[in-house]
């Protein structure tokens, strides 16, 4: 055993798989954060606007959050399967579309992994946004309605600004969660085909537990921790500037 110094960190700079995993993680974080925030907010608004069966609908939206990621991934894998054909290829064939193994397509694998992961966790943010929207003072909304504001104007100029603090907190939660994303990618595609859906966390797991390269894996884990810390510090700085403005 010998001390390798910074050799493992230098290796990261020339490792093509790590570079691909890093870029994939950025894409996964950006798309996943946007989709989950949007889905959570839209679902919260739908629940808020519905009077009947509100509890049932809210429960249905939240169910994916309490189902294991492995189960969710397997469900979507069967739905997207070509042989035997799943739901998606079967529906596509009705419109004359040839069956296509989307999870085996390098152009689609990462996008699907990101969207399925977003679907899995969007219910958590639906609950948070629903609670925040309920806390908006009804008198403020009534005054805006009297002044001639329609529903969209109330949403953009009143509801969203009043829950800004909640949006900022959930943004931090989403970014930190996406940067550490692992389970859906690993179960659905294993980082493949090739390294098209490889994330830093899945590459870290393979490096340590499959390849047995603990030194290089430790370097990747340090990079992942620093990456999360730097990103959160940047977000904190941006939120601080917004408060001053």
Give the topology.
Elements: H1 7-14, H2 16-49, H3 54-66, H4 69-80, H5 87-94, H6 109-134, H7 138-146, H8 151-162, H9 164-179, H10 183-188, H11 200-210, H12 214-244
Helix pairs in contact: 1-12, 2-3, 2-6, 2-9, 2-11, 3-6, 7-8, 9-12, 11-12
What does this structure look like?
This is N-acetyl-D-glucosamine ABC transport system, permease protein 1. It is a multi-pass membrane protein. Belongs to the binding-protein-dependent transport system permease family. Pfam families: BPD_transp_1 (PF00528). The chain crosses the membrane at residues 20-48, 60-80, 110-132, 214-235. By secondary structure, the protein is mainly α. The chain has a single domain, classed as Orthogonal Bundle (MetI-like fold), CATH 1.10.3720. The protein is built from 12 helices and no strands. α1 (7-14) crosses α12 (214-244). The longest helix has 34 residues, at 16-49.
Overall shape: flat
How many separate helices? 12
What order do the helices and strands follow?
HHHHHHHHHHHH
Largest sheet: none
**Rg computed from alpha carbons, rounded to a whole number of angstroms:** 22 Å
The assigned structural class equals mainly alpha
**Would you report the number of β strands?**
0
CATH superfamily: MetI-like
Domain ABC transmembrane type-1: 22-235
Membrane topology: Multi-pass membrane protein
Protein name: N-acetyl-D-glucosamine ABC transport system, permease protein 1
InterPro entries: ABC_transporter_permease (IPR051393), MetI-like (IPR000515), MetI-like_sf (IPR035906)
């Amino acid at each position: 055993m010998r001390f390798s110094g910074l050799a493992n960190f230098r290796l990261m700079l020339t490792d093509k798989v790590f570079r691909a995993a890093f870029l994939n993680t950025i894409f996964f974080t950006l798309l996943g954060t946007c989709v989950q925030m949007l889905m959570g907010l839209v679902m919260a608004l739908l629940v808020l606007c519905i009077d009947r069966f509100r509890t049932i609908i809210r429960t249905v939206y939240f169910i994916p959050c309490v189902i294991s990621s492995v189960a969710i991934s397997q469900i979507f894998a069967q739905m997207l399967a070509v042989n035997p054909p799943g739901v998606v290829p079967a529906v596509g064939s009705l419109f004359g579309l040839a069956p296509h193994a989307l999870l085996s397509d390098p152009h689609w694998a990462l996008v699907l992994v990101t969207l399925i992961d977003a679907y899995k966790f969007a219910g958590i943010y639906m609950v948070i946004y629903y609670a925040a929207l309920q806390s908006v003072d009804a008198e403020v909304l009534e005054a805006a309605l009297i002044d001639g504001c329609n529903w969209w104007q109330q949403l953009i100029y009143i509801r969203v600004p009043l829950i800004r603090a909640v949006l900022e907190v959930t943004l931090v939660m989403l970014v930190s969660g996406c940067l550490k994303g692992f389970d859906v990618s690993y179960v659905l595609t294993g980082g493949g085909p090739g390294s098209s859906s490889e994330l830093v966390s899945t590459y870290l797991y393979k490096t340590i537990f499959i390849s047995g390269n603990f030194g290089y894996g430790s370097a990747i884990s340090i990079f992942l921790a620093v990456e999360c810390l730097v990103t959160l510090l940047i977000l904190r700085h941006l939120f601080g500037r917004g408060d001053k403005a």
